[in-house]
Specification:
15 helices; 2 strands
Length: 342
Amino acid sequence: MSARGLATGAAGTTETGATPVRRHTMLLVMVTIAIIVLAAFPRFAQPYYVTLVLPAFAYAIALLGFNLLFGYTGLLSFGHALFVALGAYGAAVLTSKLGVKSFEVILVVSGSTAVVVAIPVGLLAVRYVRIFFGILTLAFGMLFHSFLFKFYNLTGGDTGIRVLRPALFGNEFSELDKTTFLIGPFYYYCLALLIVLGFAMWRIVHSPFGLHLAAIRENSRKAEYLGVRVRLFRLAAFLISAFYCAVGGVILAINIGQADPETAYWTHSGELVFMTVLGGFANFFGPLVGAFVFIFLKSELMSLTQYWRFFLGVTLALIVILFPRGVMGVAQDLWSKLKNMR
């Protein structure tokens, strides 16, 4: 090979190697900017809009787990509101009935309970795929919803159970009223929790475990021929997703101050799917964006019309038809066009 050919090859290698570095640097910058904006949001936004960010945090965490199962493993669940409700009722029982105020203990106990419940559910569900998996998870979700309604003495029935204010790192912030507590220390605690769990999920999906899940999603039979224990990996993804959903449920319940049986209803599971598709399940950050867009869009539509569910449905239909890759897919396409115009 000539010296010119060697130089060309070396330049191509350098350029190819630099592209992922540049991409990761840009991604890190954008994530840092998003964190700074969220951290400064309570300083310049009205308290009402700050309280809207809290359920967005909760759903963002829950959807990180949900999309591990849906986007990375290829299993669409219509019953994951079950685990969100387990987190909410775990917080309610621990604070109201057992007198546990430590938020850290509530998170660990509620998340662990969701994982324990997810083991028998997952063992049955991961034996199936496609619509059969979805219907089976939906059945378990509706079973838990019925349990919450019927066992009134244990669950409070249709009125639910009150959730008391937790202590953060042992500090109850008793001098603060509820709103100040939510948009102050609790807000920043949830933001930090989202960052930590988001980083953990990023490591999971880019680990060999995550690559195994992607292989199972693309061709489970071929992955099994290569020695991948398909059901075991699906079960592991199911358990992780249950834990994340339970953590999101804890935050939702504390924000509302109530654990409600409607949290386990199938329409709530549908909202999880809606937010994931809205943001774009093919992108790691898609479900997070979908959670924020959904919460603020829902709030604005509810203030404008009583038929807000209809307009949300129209929005989803348009996105699926016109922009199947969601908000993040549209953003990626626009970014690619801007780069090509240079």
